[in-house]
Amino acid sequence: MITLYHTPISPNSRRVWITLIEKELEFELVEVKLNGEQFKPEFLAINPFHHIPALVDDGFNVVESLAILDYLEAKYPTPSMLPKDAKDLAIVRMVEMVCVNELLPSLTPMMSIIFDLPGKNPEAIEQAKTKVSTALQFFENLLDEREYFGSDSLTLADVVAGSIVSWIPQTGISLDKYSKLKAWCDRLVARPAWQTTQATPEMIEGFRKLLMSRTA
Prior knowledge:
The protein is of the alpha+beta class. It contains 10 helices and 4 strands.
């Protein structure tokens, strides 16, 4: 049995959750509340770095979301979520790494906008918007006539990017100027896996309260 330890509102968790659904695997969800549960001994025994997500499959622990995705693709290869062509595989990997190394960190100053928090830093927000726009244009340029990144079917790149790009409109940045990316995003959010894993208003408000308590 596969067990996913996750926090529903986390993009890192959501990308694994979506992949499990898209691969039609049986799994158990265990929510780890970030109010301290991630530091409990039973979770630290799975991931000593106290990060989510973590996945346990037949007693084997896997941490770090990209490693989890690669594990799932290798062990459960149907449906395939990685292209075989060298250029297409490079597209998938570039999207994944730009998301993790460029896009997601750039959104950190915008948390105050997304969750309506006090102490907004206008200068940091403007710098972040520039970095986000660079990443979005990069993605726009990588998309071609196919529906997904490097493929006619869903790839790991779509799962990773989609779990982050879906938050972008809430920062005040419109996707309208990125026509291919917007159409891609619309296709993703219409998929059942996206609908199932969508954060509810209650989840968002709960996370907002957690962030507020940390800044108080």
